[in-house]
Amino acid sequence: MSGAPKSPATYLGLALLILLGVEPGRGDDILSQVAFVQRTLESPKGPAEFMFEFNDDEIFHVDLDAKETIWRLPDFKEFTSFQAEGAQGNIAVLRSNLDILMRRSNNTPAESVPPKVTVYPEKPAEVGEPNILICLVSGFSPPEVGVTWLRNGQVVTDRVEETDFYPNKDNSFRMFSYMTFIPGRGDVYVCRVTHSGLEQPLDREWNPNMPEPLPETTENVVCGLGLAVGIVGIIAGTVLLVKSRQLNGNRFRQGPL
């Protein structure tokens, strides 16, 4: 397999604001606002992302192009709201800060860390029974990966969905790609991942006869398959915090460096 073409150097700006919780890692609940922007020298306005998380699980993210708040659990909309314009203001400040950081660092690009890839079914696979094949891509930076599914060597484009990029505590990222499928005897599925940290695409193969690998952590499973049942208990706190953010939109913004 020939090497993957090198992409332009990427510059990354990441902001993480903890809104609730003390001493992460000691069992406390953490509600956080996460935003990042990235660009290359050739493209001043690159991709960006804005979301709120609870214990590393997404509550909502903002579609910055459509100016729309997308709720991970639609039921949250019955209790609160979030104005997408507030996220766009935060992203504008981050872009300005990234430009300043690039100049101060003499355009030093973000470190390129290659991803780890794990493929596993949502439930034990049975031939002929509908299932979902999950490709977990984790531990990479910057947040720019390409994921392609193949069935018996042929690219699959339908019944495929992807999540946003979720930040890890070490400033790397993770994301999930899902493919709805019906396992067939002898079928071979491949999740192919490309990233600037890889010399060539990374393939992870799965077939119905393979033992099922475990995801890296239980946390990743929760993040990939949905919010835990217990998250309902934090709705009241989330309502208060998000409402407070709406009333004080500028309170949490970073000023220019």
Explain the overall architecture:
By secondary structure, the protein is an alpha+beta fold. The chain is built from three helices and 14 strands. It has a five-stranded antiparallel sheet, sandwiched between helices. Strands 6, 7, 10, 11 and 12 form a five-stranded antiparallel sheet that branches. It has a four-stranded antiparallel sheet with strand order 9-8-13-14, with no helix packed on it. The longest helix has 21 residues.
The count of strands amounts to: 14
Please compute the radius of gyration using only Cα atoms. 20 Å
Structural class: alpha+beta
What fraction, in percent, of the residue positions are helical? 10-25%
| Major β-sheet annotation | 5 strands, antiparallel
Distance between the termini: 45 Å
Shape: globular
Mean pLDDT across residues: 80
Order of helices and strands: EEEEEHEEEEEEEEEHH
Order the strands across the largest sheet as they lie in space: 1-2-3-4-5
Uncertain residue ranges: 1-6, 217-234, 250-257
Report the β-strand fraction as a percent range: 25-35%
Count of helical regions: 3
Membrane topology: Single-pass type I membrane protein
Family: Belongs to the MHC class II family.
Subcellular location: Membrane
Pfam family, one: C1-set
